Each structure stands twice: as structure tokens, then as C-alpha cells.
Automatic annotation (TrEMBL):
This is Acyltransferase 3 domain-containing protein. Pfam families: Acyl_transf_3. It comes from Rhizobium rhizoryzae. GO terms for cellular component: membrane. One of its GO terms (biological process) is polysaccharide biosynthetic process.
């Protein structure tokens, strides 16, 4: 959008803005699904859950190192004493949101695309609390959904599904946890429940029809530029239908996924956080070397995409994968030691007959 006419150009509004909004909402759906599958085992009516502390440690080790580095880099690049302040950096690094943007972003951190990571961390905290209830995990999640997504809105005197609506007297944290955009995480979890259950398509034909129909709805909404907005009142509903149909179809027949898409999936988190830095690098190259035309427009887009992919491959290999694996093992040992020490202390305090 930046290199092809600006954020308000027809090209931006019709071609790129729908893609950016659909991408974030699909990310939330996938996140809920993957987190449920990776932290639980067994059928929905007999769940075995991961330790909440282990879950939080593993998730933060997975996402935080790269987020920290990208936030510090973009803060150094964009520092101007106005938007990029020390307070904003502090809030960004420790996920302490403040109302500085319109919903559903609500909080726009130093690394602007990190607003979705703030929602992800909020979801992690709620999910970790739910894991503490073991096999009753799904009931606790349902209670959170009823209280946060419906009860809070009813207390305000109305009900909305529009994630851009934020009551003026709410704090940022109060606005993030019950924001209707969180329903996408919940649908992801419910999709995981369906995937683990015995529910399935009778044959490949209805599965393929469901996928084709939901995919057509998404494409039609994209092409018509109709109701392009975050959440279930916007692009969320057709995307949820597509996601559920794809996951359930996977139980009937296996999709053949090209290796290049698998590799793009592997580096997708790096790609999401790195691309704002790649944009700045492309601009610097253009300005410092005074390249001008034809090094602008679509050529600059191509250079930025290439830079983003190249940097993402490196950060995935050396930060997400290599450092992440080491940090996960170290944190796992530390967490196990803390839990074991706490268990010994508690056992020592208990009367003999209760041990």
C-alpha cells in the first residue's frame, strides 16, 4: 500500500487492505486451534492437559525473543520522541497496553504489527488459567466466553460483536480481554474439539463441497470488498467456515501441501514481525543511493518482499529454531526445578496423615 499509491488509494483499499485484515483473523483462528491441540491430549470428554506454568514458559520462549529484537530495532529506527517514546517501548516490551489506537487494535505498540501479539498473549494468560482446571478446561473456556464476550457487554447496557467498539471509560486491558475479536480464538479451540471428536464428513464429496463453498464465500467477499473488517461482523464468519471445513475435511482425505507453502508456514511468524524492518531497509536503499525511478512502485514492493523473505529465513533459523530450542530446554529444566521445589515445600508443611 505504501509503495503503490498510499494507504487510501483504490489499489490499497481493494487489493491489499482485505488481505491484511483476513490474514490477522485467520491467524487468530489458527492460534486457538494449534494451542488447544498442542497443550491437551485425549478426547474432548476426557482431556489431559499440560501444566499451566510449562505452557506459559514454552509459549513466551517461542514468541518473545524475536518480538523483543524486532521491537528494539524498529524503536531505534523510528525513534522521534513523539509516538516512539520510552514509555511506549516499556509498555510494548512488557505487554502493558494503553488506549492509543482505535479498536480492535486498541493498543498500538512500538512495533505496530505487534497489536495482534498483545491479543495473543492475553489469550495465553486466559488459556493457562483454564489449563489449571484440568479436564474441565473447556467448561472454564466457555465461562470466560460467556462472561467476557457477552456479560461485560450486557453490563454496559448493550451488546455488540463489532471489535472496533470500545466504551470510552474502559482501560486498555479491560477492552482487550472481552473484545469480540477473541471469539476467533474460541472458534479455533472449538475446531480443535471437533477435530479430536468422532464427528466427520461421511465421504470426500461433502467435505470437498463444504471447502469449495466456504472458499468461494471468502473470495467473493475479498473481490467485492464487502464488509471488510475484523471479527465475526466482518471477515471472521466466512473465514471461520473455511477453517472449520478445511480441518474437518482433513479427517476424510489428506491434502497435498507443496513444500514451499510448508516452508512459508515455518517462517510466517518471522515474516510477520520482520517485514516492517524490511520496508525501512528498502526505503533507505532507495534514498541513500538516490535510485528513484524505476526503483519505486512495484519494483520496490518486489525488493521489500525479497528482503522480508531473506531476513525471515535467517531469523527463523538462528532465533526461532536454534535459540528457541535451547531456551525452551533451559526454561523447561528451570520450571521443573521450581515445581519440584514447591511440591517438596508444600509436602513438608503438610501433616503426615495428609501427605
Amino acid at each position: 500500500m505504501l509503495f503503490t499509491g498510499g494507504y487510501d488509494s483504490e489499489m490499497a483499499i481493494r487489493a491489499f487492505r482485505p488481505a491484511s485484515i483476513m490474514g490477522v483473523d485467520m491467524f487468530f483462528l489458527i492460534c486457538g486451534f494449534v494451542i488447544f491441540l498442542s497443550s491437551t491430549k485425549g478426547k474432548p470428554d476426557d482431556l489431559q492437559t499440560q501444566n499451566p506454568l510449562n505452557f506459559l514458559v514454552r509459549r513466551l520462549v517461542r514468541i518473545y525473543p524475536l518480538y523483543l529484537i524486532c521491537t528494539l530495532v524498529i524503536f531505534g529506527i523510528e525513534f522521534n520522541g513523539e509516538r516512539q517514546t520510552g514509555e511506549l517501548l516499556f509498555r510494548s516490551l512488557f505487554f502493558m497496553p494503553t488506549l492509543n489506537a482505535t479498536g480492535p487494535n486498541i493498543f498500538e505498540p512500538a512495533l505496530t504489527v505487534g497489536w495482534s501479539i498483545t491479543y495473543e498473549v492475553a489469550f495465553y494468560s486466559v488459556f493457562a488459567l483454564s489449563l489449571a482446571f484440568g479436564k474441565y478446561l473447556l467448561r472454564v473456556i466457555l465461562i470466560w466466553a460467556l462472561i467476557a464476550l457477552i456479560g461485560m457487554a450486557l453490563l454496559e447496557g448493550n451488546y455488540w460483536l463489532d471489535p472496533t467498539v470500545v466504551p470510552p471509560d474502559w482501560s486498555a486491558a479491560r477492552a482487550i480481554f472481552p473484545n469480540p475479536i477473541n471469539s476467533l480464538f474460541l472458534i479455533g479451540i472449538l475446531t480443535g474439539v471437533l477435530y479430536r471428536s468422532d464427528v466427520h464428513f461421511g465421504s470426500a464429496t461433502p467435505a470437498m463441497l463444504a471447502v469449495a463453498f466456504s472458499f468461494t464465500c471468502c473470495v467473493a467477499q475479498y473481490m467485492s470488498n464487502w464488509n471488510i473488517a475484523h471479527g465475526m461482523t466482518g471477515v471472521g464468519l466466512p473465514l471461520a467456515a473455511l477453517f472449520v471445513s478445511l480441518v474437518m475435511a482433513e479427517k476424510t482425505f489428506r491434502f497435498v501441501v507443496p513444500d514451499v507453502l510448508v516452508r512459508l508456514g515455518n517462517i510466517s511468524y518471522s515474516l510477520y514481525l520482520i517485514h516492517p524492518i524490511a520496508i525501512w531497509i528498502a526505503i533507505w536503499i532507495n534514498v541513500d543511493f538516490n535510485l528513484g525511478n524505476p526503483f519505486s512502485g512495484w519494483l520496490l514492493v518486489a525488493v521489500t518482499v525479497a528482503l522480508s523473505l531473506g531476513l525471515s529465513v535467517m531469523t527463523y533459523a538462528f532465533i526461532e529454531k536454534a535459540f528457541g530450542s535451547w531456551a525452551t530446554r533451559w526454561c523447561q529444566h528451570a520450571t521443573d526445578w521450581v515445581l519440584e521445589s514447591c511440591a517438596q515445600q508444600i509436602s513438608g508443611w503438610m501433616p503426615q496423615r495428609l501427605r
